[in-house]
């Protein structure tokens, strides 16, 4: 699968829509992959002739305006994983390290790190010249404080995997992990921010409305859940040549606008309120794809949507592998991509998308429950299913509701009775790890390594009730424990975990939405820099007008 952006024109759009229409009638995963390849080929083409959307002249204020559909509710650096991957996060805070465009860790505030015991203990050295926008100098005591405070607040799961952290010098510290799961320490590096303890404790609201950080940008305007503006600092501590390209500051001024309604986002782009949009809704793409005034780019998604089967003994699916397999075969993944994403997505070949570290490209050639109604009906007959209702739990957002309704139709078509359990996010969060509350739960799980996903989903010791669906599968646990250590993270061991989860239909990866980015041509994009999710890093790219 080609990584990164694919520019599309009207020809590419027609190919997508045609392939998507065919995909809606079923067929194998390779058909949609072919459609994606068509987009890739079209990436070398120029944008087609002007369509019906006329671009109004953009403003001349020197600010790169970016539309995005979410915004932080507070500037505090102590936060959960929500919005962890938002494009403005690297301008808000600086972490010890970042994941670059080829999904490798690069030092940022940290100068180096090493382990001498196979990933249980790490010695970290930070730069000796780190300072924030208020002139506070950052040393190892600030990093130790941030980690310890994060452990106390327990807002991000990764900090629960830290046993201890200790300062060993002015700019050195030692971190001891509870386990040596591949990717855990890397997540810790990424989620540990360089924040002055003195400045934070002096803040009346824990940096809720006003932030002091070591970032190369300082905040010039902030409205909770609405707008976030930055200006490049003249007193930044680091030599920019030593920075990872994905966080190297290029744009002098930029502003993020939170616009949640898709039609309003399109209007903001047309009228020049924003110069570009990250994560445009698929329903709005067509009006820009065939217009010479805009560039439309697609990036393969970094999470995907999965269904997880309950492992609780009270569930009808928990101990019936043929029933779970029948459900997987009954789902037309290409139909989901067409119906939910208007073709802007790809099928999955594992529970995790291809972007994850450890994914094996050969899995894309396997039969990963390719849509097959006859096979689904035969497995259902062999399963002994007696018409018991199967419940699907999901959230109440529009995409999730429509997904659940389509899945209900697919399952009913082979003779399975389905009950939808659509709840708000608060209730979903409180019951999603309790397998007694559903038979199937729909979710989207992020991460950088396959082991990130494994450790939070399938370890029977992860939660009080077992794994994330109340399952106690010790055979799978043994495969996991063998595979996720630094020495055990081999192709053979990884493949064994993939095969076990797939063959036993413990979970099923359905589809992976593409991230759609639209950029106005008059923004003057000259050099594009990508961040690790495969789409443009606005602050680090070069624009003639900004």
Question: What can you tell me about this protein's structure?
Answer:
- Residues 104-456 form the Solute-binding protein family domain.
- Residues 28-55 have a biased composition (Low complexity).
- With 546 residues, the chain is an alpha+beta fold.
- Helix content is 29%, strand content 20%.
- It contains 16 helices and 22 strands.
- An eight-stranded mixed sheet has the order 1-13-20-12-2-11-10-9.
- Strand 3 (97-99) and strand 4 form a beta hairpin.
- It starts with a strand and ends with a strand.
- Mean pLDDT is 89; it is low at 1-28 and 30-52.
Short characterization:
By secondary structure, this protein is an alpha+beta fold. The protein is 29% helix and 20% strand. Helix 1 packs antiparallel against helix 2 and helix 1 crosses helix 10.
Q: What is the count of β-strands? A: 22
Main beta-sheet annotation: 8 strands, mixed
Helix content class = 25-40%
End-to-end gap: 33 Å
Number of helices: 16
What is the averaged pLDDT score?
89
Strand-residue fraction?
15-25%
Sum up the overall morphology in one term.
globular
Low-confidence stretches: 1-28, 30-52
Strand order of the largest sheet: 1-13-20-12-2-11-10-9
Summing up helix and strand content along with how strands pair, one would put the structural category as alpha+beta
Radius of gyration: 24 Å
């Amino acid at each position: 699968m080609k990584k990164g952006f694919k520019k599309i024109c009207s020809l590419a759009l027609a190919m997508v829509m045609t392939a998507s229409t065919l995909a809606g009638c079923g067929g194998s995963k390779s058909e949609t992959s072919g459609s994606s390849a068509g987009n890739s080929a079209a990436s070398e083409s120029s944008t087609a002739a002007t369509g019906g959307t006329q671009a109004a002249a953009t403003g001349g204020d020197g600010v790169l305006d970016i539309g995005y559909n979410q915004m932080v509710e507070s500037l505090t650096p102590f936060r959960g994983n929500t919005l962890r991957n938002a494009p403005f996060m690297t301008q808000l805070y600086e972490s010890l390290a970042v994941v670059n465009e080829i999904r490798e860790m690069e030092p940022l505030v940290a100068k180096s790190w090493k382990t001498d015991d196979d990933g249980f203990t790490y010695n970290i050295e930070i730069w000796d010249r780190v300072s924030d926008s208020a002139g506070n100098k950052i040393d190892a005591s600030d990093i130790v404080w941030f980690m310890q405070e994060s452990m106390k607040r327990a807002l991000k799961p990764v900090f629960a995997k830290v046993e201890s952290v200790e300062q060993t010098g002015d700019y050195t510290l030692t971190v001891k992990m509870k386990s040596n799961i591949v990717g855990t320490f890397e997540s810790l590096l990424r989620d540990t921010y360089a924040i002055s303890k003195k400045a934070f404790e002096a803040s009346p609201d824990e940096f809720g409305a006003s932030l002091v950080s070591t970032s190369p940008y300082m905040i010039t305007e902030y409205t909770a859940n609405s707008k976030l503006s930055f200006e490049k600092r003249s007193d930044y501590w680091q030599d920019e040549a030593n920075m990872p390209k994905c966080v190297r500051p290029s744009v002098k001024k930029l502003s993020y606008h939170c616009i949640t309604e898709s039609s309003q986002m399109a209007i903001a782009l047309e009228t020049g309120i924003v110069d570009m949009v990250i994560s445009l809704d698929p329903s709005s793409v067509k009006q820009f794809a065939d217009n010479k005034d805009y560039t439309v780019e697609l990036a393969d998604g970094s999470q995907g949507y999965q269904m997880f089967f309950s492992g609780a003994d009270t569930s009808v699916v928990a101990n019936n592998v043929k029933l779970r397999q029948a459900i997987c075969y009954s789902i037309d993944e290409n139909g989901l991509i067409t119906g939910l994403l208007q073709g802007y997505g790809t099928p999955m070949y594992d529970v995790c998308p291809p972007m994850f570290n450890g994914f094996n490209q050969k899995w894309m050639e396997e039969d990963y429950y390719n849509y097959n109604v006859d096979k689904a009906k035969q497995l259902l007959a062999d399963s002994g299913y007696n018409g018991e209702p199967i419940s699907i739990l999901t959230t109440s957002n529009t995409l999730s509701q429509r997904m659940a309704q389509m899945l209900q139709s697919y399952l009913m078509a082979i003779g399975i009775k389905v009950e939808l359990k659509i709840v708000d996010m608060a209730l979903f969060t409180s019951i999603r790890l309790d397998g007694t509350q559903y038979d199937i739960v729909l979710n989207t799980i992020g991460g950088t390594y396959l082991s990130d996903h494994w450790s939070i989903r399938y370890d029977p010791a992860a939660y009080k009730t077992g794994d994330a669906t109340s399952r106690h599968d010790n055979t799978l646990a043994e495969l996991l424990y063998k595979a996720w250590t630094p020495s055990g993270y081999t192709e053979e061991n990884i493949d064994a975990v993939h095969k076990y989860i797939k063959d036993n239909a413990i979970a099923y990866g359905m589809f992976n939405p593409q991230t759609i980015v639209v950029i106005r041509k008059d923004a003057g994009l000259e050099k594009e820099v990508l961040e690790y999710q495969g789409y443009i890093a606005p602050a680090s790219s070069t624009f003639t007008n900004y």
